[in-house]
Write a structure and sequence with these properties.
244 residues, alpha+beta, 3 helices, 7-stranded antiparallel β-sheet, single chain
Length: 244
């Protein structure tokens, strides 16, 4: 009587290996798919976060642009008075420059950035007089009874090399990268007394400064790894201060 054979035949072994390989490939594919989904969602989230940060920051500063204190007539600083006078006449501008990058300039009294060094300080009693100083105001003038200090900053945002930079011209630092496009439009009222926007222009003239009512910012974010399609974000910030 022959002894009963034990173990797997070659065919059974091959079938087992094939089934195991199919299972491993299925699990691997599911893992790769989950990883790609995670990377895609993470990239989209990063793009949204960068866009939200920049547009929120700029909107806050735009709302305070053109706010030079409580009096319309201000005595300019004794040193470089023309710079302050020009800032009053044009507290916001958009310059299209293919060489150095497009540049948005704001003269803002943004309360959220009061801790930074001001470009100018306007000291006023809000009744009869207001005087501007370069940088911080003298302690004696700021501390005089009845006086209030308004800190003004001249802020630049430049777009070049797929990056938004901020800071003074020649000393700018990168703020966010992977920017495909950045645009600015100015919403104008029909006249200085109207509150409704009737048209948008890319570059307002000095005569149109007092007619600006809103600023439309458009930002296109890109994914350097190509996982997510370009996303375009837009916000309209309403002016809350006179521009003159």
């Amino acid at each position: 009587m022959k002894r009963q054979q034990q173990g797997l035949s070659l065919i059974e072994l091959m079938i087992s290996l094939a089934l195991g390989l199919i299972i491993v490939l299925g699990v691997t594919q599911a893992f790769i798919s989950a990883k790609n989904t995670y990377l895609t969602q993470n990239a989209a989230s990063a793009m949204q976060e960068d866009a939200r940060y920049l547009l929120t920051r700029m909107s806050q500063e735009i709302r305070m642009t053109g706010m030079f204190g409580c009096l319309a007539t201000i005595t300019a600083p004794t040193t470089s008075p023309a710079l302050f006078t020009a800032a009053q006449a044009t507290p916001i501008s958009w310059t299209v420059d293919a060489t150095n990058g497009n540049r948005l300039m704001l003269v803002t009294a943004d309360v959220g950035s009061a801790g930074t060094t001001p470009t100018w300080t306007v000291v006023s009693d809000c009744l009869t007089n207001a005087t501007a100083y370069n940088g911080a105001a003298p302690a004696a003038a700021a501390a005089a009874a009845g006086n209030m200090s308004f800190l003004l900053r001249q802020v630049y945002y430049s777009f070049r090399s797929n990056t938004i930079f901020t800071g003074a011209v020649g000393a700018q630092q990168p703020l966010i990268s992977n920017v495909g496009a950045f645009g600015v439009l100015f919403g104008l009222a029909s006249d200085a007394t109207s509150a409704s926007v009737t048209s948008y222009v890319a570059t307002p003239t000095t005569a149109q400064m007092e007619m600006i009512r809103t600023i439309r910012l458009t930002l296109t974010m890109t994914d350097p790894n190509g996982r997510v399609a370009d996303q375009t974000y837009s916000v309209v910030a309403a002016m809350r201060n006179r521009l003159q």
